[in-house]
Hints:
Blueprint (H helix, E strand, L loop, with lengths): L15 E4 L9 H16 L3 E6 L9 H13 L9 E2 L4 H13 L3 E4 L3 H13 L22 E4 L6 E6 L3 E6 L7 E3 L7 H11 L4 E5 L5 H12 L5 E5 L2 E2 L15 H6 L4 H10 L12 H7 L10 E2 L2 H14 L2 H12 L15 H11 L6 H12 L17 H16 L5 H15 L3 H13 L7 H8 L1 H17 L6
Parallel strand pairs: 1-2, 2-3, 9-10, 11-12
Antiparallel strand pairs: 4-5, 5-8, 6-7
Amino acid sequence: MNAATSPTLFTRGSLVTRFAPSPTGHLHIGGARTAVFCWLLARRYGGRFVLRIEDTDRERSRQEYTDSILASMRRLKLDWDGDPIFQKDRFAVYDAAVERLLASGHAYWCACSPETVEAAREKARSEGKKPRYDGRCRNLGLGPGPGRTVRLAAPAEGRIEFDDMVKGRLAFEASELDDMVLRRADGSPTYNFSVVVDDAAMNITHVLRGDDHVNNTPRQILLYRAFGAEPPVFGHVPMILGPDRQKLSKRHGAKSVMEYDKDGFLPDALVNYLVRLGWSCGDREIFERDELVSLFDGGNLNRSPAAFDPQKLLWVNAEHMRRYTPEALLPELRPFLNTDGESGPQAGATVDRKLVLACIGMLQGRARTLKDLAEQMRPVLTPADDLVYAEGALESLGPDDCAHLAELRDRLAALEAFDRDTLHAAVQAYVEEKGLKFKAVGLPLRVALLGAVNGPDIVQVMQTAGREDTLAKLDRALKLAAGGVQNQC
Ligand code: GLU
């Protein structure tokens, strides 16, 4: 963190950040990462985190997106302070702010049509100058009228400089900037205007946002000057790119926060992954949320864009799942258990809590998402009669396999206990007696108990499933395999 952003400049609690999404789409990776950074900064310094919905664009803003953004924020556990603020409810505030600038001579009414403005820009372009509105209405002393806009009377020269938290010192020439429109002809405020009015009114001390806004910042600083207000500290984080270093899009596998939720990613894992896409702390990859809160000070934000890597996200999610106790993971897993969808064990089935906890313990190190975890435990939770076998699995059982299964079935039925050691000893004794490799019984056992040749340690599966279920599944597999055309068990 540089001097401008140093927490020593803040008495604890005086730092205020905000996340200001436009509800023109769902919350995606890039926006979510910005939200996480702002939230972390506020939480780190005991400050405030304001959520402001920038919905002044009536055409493009949709309630559905506002709802989905709020749901995504809640799901990521990025709690905001106070109620969300909606810009569409604040037009009176923007009108009053326009009046103030008009009264102080920092703004003026402009009667130019869009065509006139474009012609002025074109002229500048043809003279090899930066295309800008020529300010022809500035000294006409116009008042309000149909089709009129309000523009900032921007300084013609001078430098606008600021220390960016990410990019360091940035400087812009005032001569490059237009007399920008503050209030459109339809009375709506422009983005740069409403943002400054609100950031100033809400005492925002730190603005962290995507660097697609970096060119707006000198314009916003001019507005602060016009209002006689102190600008906040700005930080512009680079865009997130796709693995091919092109603009991130769906084709790179990037999804919205709610889609990741549906796919079984943990909020803490998603937050962890997003933070690392633009911030580092040594070589560390995995952080608990409270660790992030204590480590994130706004420093070490990367200047160069990070590339989104879906495989790494899966890995980070797996690492987080591993760190949960089964009891803590169960509520997260629940939505994936009782669905009618492909990942649920059985539509509407009541799942045995103890059994599910045992399954989590057995499988949480093998699954990468909650969906994957639910999928992997499905055969264990499914009663023998409903077990679905992978294609070709039963058919792969030859006469020898069936003979082993039948004999093992009787031995398992006769065991006094059904714990891991006893089960292991029983299977081990069987393979030694017959001079077999463990695999020779492991594979058919998997087919019988899980319906597939892959899966976790089979002794653990038997122990988790219990004697009754294990025997029932062995019986069914033997019956079905015996009825098969190719195999004569
Ligand atoms: N509404 C803007 C956006 O979604 C916010 C920009 C800002 O943070 O100032 O890009």
